[in-house]
Specification:
Layout (H helix, E strand, L loop, with lengths): L1 H17 L1 H4 L30 E10 L8 E2 L4 E7 L1 E6 L5 E5 L3 E3 L6 E5 L5 E10 L6 E2 L2
Antiparallel strand pairs: 1-8, 2-9, 3-6, 3-8, 4-5, 4-7
Length: 143
Amino acid sequence: MRNITASALLFAAAFFTTSANALDSSNTPVVVTPLVSKTTTASGQPITLPQKNVEVQVSSYQIAPGATLPVHKHPFPRYAYVEQGTLKVTNVETGAANTFKSGDFIVEMIGQWHQATNIGTDPVKLLVIDQVEQGAKNTILKQ
């Protein structure tokens, strides 16, 4: 059921992306450039959504050069757009790592311990979108 919901949302996004020109009523062109379409997280898991009272939370992150975030995991979907910088995300359970740079879109792993390090010389700036059960936090720090 969760996979069907994620597929329906992705289909709706694709429909509105391709129909953007029809939404403009002033005869001014609207240009939509699809950036990414994903059905799995960075570690290959299917994207699943909260089952009740979904809340969307949007945050801006700035990570200083050389900074490493603590080991953590997310119980719900988290998406991030890299506005600036270079970020290495390591799954501490498997040792697998991915590097993301300006313009990349990250579908973060769900329920897997990981950490991120700014491996560049500029701050990393992220636009982060969480989909959680209403009132829930989406980051659990490893003790």
